[in-house]
Structures are given as structure tokens and as C-alpha cells.
Amino acid sequence: MEKKIIYMDNAATTKVYKEVLEEMMPYYSENYGNASGIYSIGRDARKALENARVKVSEILNCDYKEIFFTSGGSESDNWAIKGVMSEQLKNNKNHVVTSKIEHHAILHTVEKLSKNGFYVTYLTVDKNGLINTEELEKSITERTGIVSIMYANNEIGTIQNISEIGEICKKKNVIFHTDAVQAVGNTKINFNDVDLLSMSGHKIHGPKGVGILFKKKNIRIQNLIDGGAQERNLRAGTENVAGIVGLSKALEMSYSSMDSKIEYLTELRNKLIYNLLKIEKSRLNGDLKKRLANNVNMCFEGIEGESILLLLDQNGICASSGSACTSGSLDPSHVLLALGLPHEIAHGSLRLTLSEENTEQEVDYVLDILPKIVQRLRNMSPIWKN
């Protein structure tokens, strides 16, 4: 008999909706043409691609010319920062402002820029993961080319005050980019607050390998990928038509049910948080209220997060200890360290991220199993005993 899987790692990736897959399938079979082809199946593919672009723009309430399709969030992040800063060098601007809790797609990008003559300011965060907007305003200089602050953190779920950050950037006449990979489809976004925004299909029940860079029409950006004339000469490469169609359908479904989804997930999330906080020496990471509805991130003193994950897996529960992109690392989360947690506590982190397919019964099962796992590991831990 097959063991039931309880999947609570939706910040890492999501299950593709059946309706999304159904819309994608024709573009792997009868409508498989290259969207640059002038023959009929190529024209059909082009029509599907541009229809998807218009659909996305209508859902996000922006101009279809501001939507550029990419391979995912990491490419969109890289393109936004490298593309803008390459252009900004013409204006003698070589300074980037970001935060200490960004996804590594941002941190590694600005780190590479710093090795090539650019300067980077890393904003600190408070104990809940929120930046200080006064610190942001003071950090912006006449040499600042871009500010990149993520919309909602992928590990702790904290949602930044994007509207206030956007206003500061407008006042200072500096370009504002946000990594909204976790936020799009999970919280309401005003695209007037930002100049550039990154998102990814597989975080919203769409396919992997496709994403979006939203770019306002007045923002000048250099190519990250050179080659053909795709995406209005700004992003070369044969378009992933099936993936783009799937992304647009997933986005449509996410936005059509967003209010009810947020209400439902908030109830499940809060039930997990309040009951897990009953465990001795446990703590919630991230802001309790300014938080994604599906995110629970906890630390349990005296044990390793990886040990919790292995025992949860034995009980059919899929979770993570932080970012999926660093799951092979033995180092504690840079996000938790930035909150001020010591290494020994940051090592004991657990992230549970829900979807609307999770049930209250599954939450009850986790609340039954997880405290027993924590106690078992503490009984074995010399750190806890001491």
C-alpha cells in the first residue's frame, strides 16, 4: 500500500494544476511550432505566446509590453540587476542597495558585481526580518543605480512595506526592483510601486523553467542573453511556448481564488504556529502579521533541522529547513543569522509552507507527529541535556 504524502514545501515548488497541464499539452504535440516560424504552426505558437502575454498583463494590471518571459526567478533577478547596472554605468552609477535576507539569486548576483568594480550596501533587518526604511533612504546616494528588496522572504515569509520603499525610490529618483517570486499569487501586489519585478511559474502551480520579468517601459536595460530577436530584442532564445501558456493559466487560477485562498491558508498557518509554540524552547521566525498566509518557520533549540526533516519524511511529511536552493549546505540560514539568531539555534529551523490542497486533518497529523520528533531528538542530543 502506497504511503500517503503530506506535502508542506510549497515555497520550494508546487504541484502543477491539472487545468494548467491540460492547456500546455497541445504545445508539445499538434501546436509544437517555433514561435518565430512564418508557417501556420509557427504562427499558431506565436499567437498563443502573445495571447498569454496579454492575459498576464490584464491579471497583473499592467501593459503587455512590460511583460518579458524568462526561464524563471533566478534569471529574472540576474537580468534586472545586471541589465540595469550595465546601463546605469553610462550615468556613472555603480552602487547597488539590497538587504541581507535576499534570495541567493540576488545576493550572488550583487556579489559578482562587487568583484567587478560595483559597490553594494546590504541593509540590516530587525528581529522579524523587516528593513528599516530610514536606513534605506540614507543609503541611497547619487551613485545608486538600483535598489533591490524582496517582496516576501522565501524562508520566513515576512512581507516588506513595498509601497513605502517604492515611494522612497521615486523621491530619490532611483530604480526599484523586487524579487516577488514568493509573493505573486499569494498576496495582492500593486505594480505601480515598482520598476521591475521578478516572478516564477513553479511557485504558483505552474511549470518549472518559466518566469517573468516585469519592466516598466521607461526603464532601460541591457540584455543578459544575446542571440536572436525574441522578446522584442531583449531576451534571446526560442520561447518556451508551452511553459508560457501554463504560467498564464496558473496565474489566472491563483488570482481568481486569491482572497478565499489567503483566508483558508491563514487559518491553517495560525493553527500550526500557535500549537508549535507550545513546544518548549521553540520560536517563530518572521513577523506574525506581516507574513505570507502559507508560511510557518520555526526554530527548536537543541536539535538540527536536518534531523527533523528526515524523521518527518519517515512519517510521510515533506518540509524543509529553509531555501530549496541551499538545501545541500550545512551552514545555518543567512536569513536567520540576519535576524540575530545564534548559530546553534538557527541550525534547528523548520519551514512548513502550505497550499490550498492541504487540509486541517493534515495539519492535525503534523501537530501530532512533530512534537514527538522534537522530543525524541532532544532525548538524543548532548547539547539539550547540557
From TrEMBL:
It holds the Pfam family Aminotran_5. Residues 6-366 form the Aminotransferase class V domain. It comes from the Bacteria. One of its GO terms (biological process) is amino acid metabolic process. GO terms for molecular function: cysteine desulfurase activity; iron-sulfur cluster binding; metal ion binding; pyridoxal phosphate binding. Its EC number is 2.8.1.7. SUPFAM superfamilies: PLP-dependent transferases. It is an enzyme of class 2 (transferase). InterPro entries: Aminotrans_V_dom, Aminotrans_V_PyrdxlP_BS, Cys_deSase_NifS_bac/arc, Cysteine_dSase, PyrdxlP-dep_Trfase, PyrdxlP-dep_Trfase_major, PyrdxlP-dep_Trfase_small. The keyword Nucleus does not apply. It catalyses: (sulfur carrier)-H + L-cysteine = (sulfur carrier)-SH + L-alanine. PANTHER family: CYSTEINE DESULFURASE, CYSTEINE DESULFURYLASE FAMILY MEMBER. Belongs to the class-V pyridoxal-phosphate-dependent aminotransferase family. NifS/IscS subfamily. Catalyzes the removal of elemental sulfur atoms from cysteine to produce alanine. Homodimer. This is Cysteine desulfurase. It comes from Candidatus Paraimprobicoccus trichonymphae. The lineage of its organism: Bacteria, Bacillati, Bacillota, Clostridia, Candidatus Paraimprobicoccus.
